[in-house]
DNA sequence: CGAGCTCTTGAGATTAATCAATAACCGTGG
DNA sequence: CCACGGTTATTGATTAATCTCAAGAGCTCG
């Protein structure tokens, strides 16, 4: 992966980009891609590094090429809630807004494919196909945020943990284009604290519930960041969600 | 308001529409408005009526003209979470999706300005200005959803109630184009149960915290649905939010 | 091999949920 | 106009879940 990453970062070639057909550029024709490419640059961050602070000026937008980042919001007294998880192909930044609304932190090593904001905004005007893709992605994110509202508002601590693992397992499975089922191993690119911030829990509760799921055989921990799920279906049951997948189109 | 409503519903004239410059049609020129108008129709619902059930086919999209609706999601065992509040000018439905992802319920008497989905989707392709407005509105909704994540994940029951009242007061103030400050009276078009579903609480807790805010003089109740806020600033303090408003552009 | 993290586990405090009873409101019809 | 039934809201007592505070264990990396 770091080797890949270096390759991409140096060559800057869209045709070998792992998110070429899933990111905001997904539906681009060659000419549109060319226009995007002319304003494109890469940035890399190490796990833990801050990409932007809420309130700071932000002159670029971009796509996650690899790694993972979290959007975070805070109350004055320091209580913290993660409000978004950016995985490969997800879009970062808001066209038309110069100031970041959320703090963005790399939760694992991260590569971003960036576009300067102004040229990108012009491109959005001129190229409905790109604007359309961005609308589609934003609607998907809104749906994901709404699922998260249900999780935060109504699920128990155990269900929250299981739900997070389900989401990560599904994304991991999607990467290798296989349905999530049976025995799955996932990498957890999050500390217990980051998980807690995402789930609206304390890190102690996260730890306790991870232990409980382990004790009950729903998950097996290999070290602290590698999780084996012996039966994905069982995990879905623990998550409290409707067992039969999502909504058809 | 019902008189207005009837007028609008019968005349179907965009130029006297109360959300003409705030809804998805906001930036439309006369010709675009004409195209929209040709596929437009109105629907009205009484408080409590269901607009669509999650999973049902939905062949229209539209804007809230007056009243209020809630988007609701459920777990299998019945636990319910409201995941969106649609106020006047808000957009309902998702272009490109034929099946409703959420149950939509009128929480007060409601008037929708609807467009058949297919023609609207064509219009989105042909008219970047409309697509652009929809993108902007969707991004705003996403921001609102993320604020709500912070509320559900990290705020106390009392702060949740105060936050909801702040939001309603701000929207009410925006309608009459005045900043929210000083003494404000708002109409609560929600039952205690709907408030609970929105805030991730039980209705008993909502009731208790409303009583507590009343006891502490933060709010005055006139009947059950009318709330007087003697000092908007004090209410904002109770909400736990950063006191200094929102993010500048 | 020890310093500094991150994570786990325990005990007790706190918040909100649950279960239960009563009160207030609303529309209807006598 | 008022009594009645049904709904919605309030309040109380108890329970359950999660948080808080605290101590110790396990990794990781110089």
UniProtKB/TrEMBL annotation, chains A, B:
One of its GO terms (molecular function) is DNA-binding transcription factor activity. It comes from Paracoccus limosus. InterPro entries: cNMP-bd_dom, cNMP-bd_dom_sf, Env_Response_Regulators, HTH_CRP, RmlC-like_jellyroll, Tscrpt_reg_HTH_Crp-type_CS, WH-like_DNA-bd_sf, WH_DNA-bd_sf. It comes from the Bacteria. CDD domains: CAP_ED (cd00038), HTH_CRP (cd00092). PANTHER family: CRP FAMILY TRANSCRIPTIONAL REGULATORY PROTEIN, FUMARATE AND NITRATE REDUCTION REGULATORY PROTEIN. This is Helix-turn-helix domain-containing protein. GO terms for cellular component: cytosol. Residues 155-233 form the HTH crp-type domain. Residues 24-141 form the Cyclic nucleotide-binding domain. Keywords: DNA-binding, Transcription, Transcription regulation.
């Amino acid at each position: 992966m770091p080797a890949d990453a270096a390759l991409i970062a140096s060559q800057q070639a869209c045709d070998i980009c792992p998110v070429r057909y899933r990111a905001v550029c997904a539906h681009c024709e060659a000419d549109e891609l060319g226009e995007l490419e002319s304003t494109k640059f890469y940035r890399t961050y190490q796990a833990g590094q801050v990409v932007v602070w809420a309130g700071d000026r932000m002159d670029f937008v971009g796509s996650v090429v690899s790694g993972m980042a979290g959007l975070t919001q805070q109350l004055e007294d320091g209580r913290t809630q993660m409000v978004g998880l950016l995985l490969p192909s997800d879009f970062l930044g808001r066209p038309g807004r110069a100031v970041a609304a959320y703090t963005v932190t790399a939760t694992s090593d991260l590569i971003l494919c960036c576009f300067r904001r102004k040229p990108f905004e012009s491109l959005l005007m001129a190229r409905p196909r790109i604007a359309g893709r961005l609308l589609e992605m934003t609607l998907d994110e809104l749906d994901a945020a709404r699922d998260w509202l249900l999780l935060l508002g109504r699920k128990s601590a155990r269900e929250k943990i299981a739900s997070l693992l389900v989401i990560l397992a599904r994304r991991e499975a999607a990467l290798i284009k296989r349905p999530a089922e049976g025995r799955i191993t996932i990498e957890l690119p999050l500390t217990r604290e980051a998980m807690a911030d995402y789930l609206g829990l304390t890190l102690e509760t996260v730890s306790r519930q991870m232990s409980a799921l382990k004790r009950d055989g729903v998950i097996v921990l290999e070290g602290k960041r590698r999780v084996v799920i012996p039966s994905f279906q069982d995990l879905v049951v623990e998550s409290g969600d409707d067992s039969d997948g999502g909504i058809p189109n």
